[in-house]
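Appendix B, record 7
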Amino acid sequence: MGSNTITTLGKVLSSAFTAGKIIDISMELNERTVVWTADPQPKLTPVCRQPEADCNFTWLDFGAHAGTHIDAPFYLFKDKWTCDQIPLNRMIGPCQVIDLTNVDDEITEEDLSLKSIEHPIILLKTRNSFDPMTAYNPKHIVLSVKGAEYLAERGVTTLGYDYQSFERDGKNNVHHVFLSRSITLLDNLRLADTEEKEYLLVCLPVKVTGIDGAPARAILIDEQP
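Structure tokens (predicted):
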């Protein structure tokens, strides 16, 4: 980032903190977090606790794709970026929330063609964001392959979604469309409190090296009055 960009970002962050215009779009990560059906549940094991011990220390045990997380191209392609190699400007910058809560099954190319894609960072808000997430929903809203190709062809470099996957039954067809092009994926967002408009996204994945994904904390900053 250049010095002007850093200065501008600093002003935006300062203003947002003062005005309270920050939306946490991250999923809670604990032992009740809904994960992919084949994955073990996260475990948060208390190694020691006060007052019996001098400190409180917890051992974390969960998959790289638990909770809000990024999918790196390495997930499907061994010669592409691992999660720590993804440029941070893919996850910090102006973004656009696209409201698709009218879709009741699969997001199609036709659904997306009704929207104006104005930024390389796009977050898709669906009915998934209103799921209480007490159990995995096998009928969650999905994205069609044609819809994925439509977004990729319009220059999207980072795509956020509000469920564990864009697709059902363990398929990776939609993932292949994005990751073959090194498009960064951000899964398990909670977008219920967002509107269809522009925000500033700040998403920082844990800097785990050499692997396919990483948990992340994601927030949106509303710069508009």
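Remarks on this record: The CA atoms of residues 42 and 62 lie 4 Å apart. The longest helix spans residues 3-19.
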